Amino acid sequence: MTEPIVNDLTIQAATVNGSGSQTANLVLTRAIFHMGIPVAPKNVFPSNIEGLPTWYQLRITPEGHMARSDKVDILVAFNVATWREDLKTVRPGGVVIHEEAFSTADTRTDVTYYAVPFAKLAKAKIQSDTLRKQLANMIYVGVVAGVLGIPWEALEHGVRRQFLSKPKAVQVNLDAIKVGFDYWQDNFSKQDPYRLEPMTGVVEGKVLVEGNQAAAIGALMGGVTVVAWYPITPSSSLCEYLIAYADRFRANGDSEKRISVVQAEDELAAVGMAIGAGWAGARAMTSTSGPGISLMAEFSGLAYYAEVPVVIFDIQRIGPSTGLPTRTSQADIGFVYTLSHGDTKHLVLLPGTVEECYEFARDAFDHADRFQTPVFVLSDLDLGMNLWMTPEFKYPEKPFDRGKVLSKDDLEKLAGEWARYRDIDGDGVTYRTLPGTDHVAAGYFTRGSGHDENARYTEGADAYARNMDRLARKLETARHALPAPVADESGQKVGLIAFGSTHAAVVEARETVKVDYLRVRALPLSDEVARFVSRHERVYVVEQNRDGQLYDLVRLALPPQLVDRVRSVRHYNGQPIPAAAIIEPLSQQEMVPA
Questions:
Q1: Are residues 176 and 27 in the same domain?
Q2: Within this chain, do residues 199 and 214 fall inside the same structural domain, yes or no?
Q3: For 91-124, what is each residue's pLDDT tens digit?
Q4: Which label site among 232, 360, 479, 507 has the fewest CB atoms less than 10 Å from its CB?
């Protein structure tokens, strides 16, 4: 046997959707994390409910790399339909744990095989016909634990953590895991180099959280009181988490809800409800994905032009049309930024970590109120639906920023001088009142058609131009108030620009290639983007879409003399981008290794 490989490997479980494999995979993930070892899980699942192939990749590295790996060290082959193709993904010297009944004729000879009669074991050891299909997956958790040396105490923790709300399920799942663990002990001797050993000092103070879960907590902390939504993958879990948290934390002693959650008939109705609630003074939101964003275009323009605050979460997936609805993408950024017809530009927040999913969701409501406009929060399936290691979230210390809202006393002092769309401060942001304000001057018409400073209907050319110019000033004010880019520079000649979940792959890639890095966190783009480009001979914009949408936005923001410095690196097959997808194109440009 070769030298041991400790805590540095990728496990891939190839199973069937709807078989209960996700639960087994999460138990394995939580058990390893409990050992103090960093984990980075990625779930690739089909868009049907049951029957098609699904893959779960669990990457384990001492450094805590969070990007997907394109190499598999240990394959758990549980799906005969994909058996031959799955086998090709394993690196030479790797391990294959497979159903004994799968044919190994003409298979590879450069990997170690552990053939396990999973079906026979399940039939003999699991008495319940109803549970046998689901618990069969737990048997492979036991076999993997035997191969890697995962202690039983960690497995118990993983099961108890996974079944917090179903304590009666704990023992039956542990029994199934023990079937696999015992079979390994009784029938195999270790023939491979891979093993796990407990670590300290790496995962302490961190938790495993999905981005959608984090965004739900952030929205709750941001003071959301109205949620209107329509289910769509991969955004549904955001509102589902929010409903669960609201049931715990937004009810008084009599269980009276302090939040209104409405499942609308479609995405068009959902955003209309949210905008109506925002106009009435509520902190309102909706959550959707690309097809829902398409339906929200007209209402988004109304909220932008009538200046109504609302928060819209877009958890991106592959398009166009239905596309690959359970694959990840960053291809909505160009569409969302100018969503609607006519001259429209929105405020867009681009979280790149689970911690930022929480923070940006929380702060989005402040930005929407302060600038009286829709605020889009763009996550994606990878960030939203996978577990990520993250530091524990900080409780917010600052009060809500409701922006320029006039009270009755404010209106008394103004003595009738207030006008809804008049820019008094020169920042493009006007003052507003909320419905129900008890003052004769508080009322105004909210129009999606032409209006002047007093909110009166007009088709006057000058009034329209003044209004549009003011909205442009407001965008410039917001540009400097939104999250600034995060720069990490050491004077290199070459730089990278990226956003969102691509961040994890960039962090890892920079261990191989020497580049400076600027992570964009909001649109409109900060002035720092142009300054970053000016400091470098070449800048690569890395993103997960075919057309280089951020690349185009960056070039539009640059003075002409800087445009030729920018190049595009794109990854768009629906799988989360690995570090190799960044390293390889940069290496071809004769980059100097780190």
A1: yes
A2: no
A3: 999 999 999 999 888 889 999 999 999 999 999 9
A4: 479
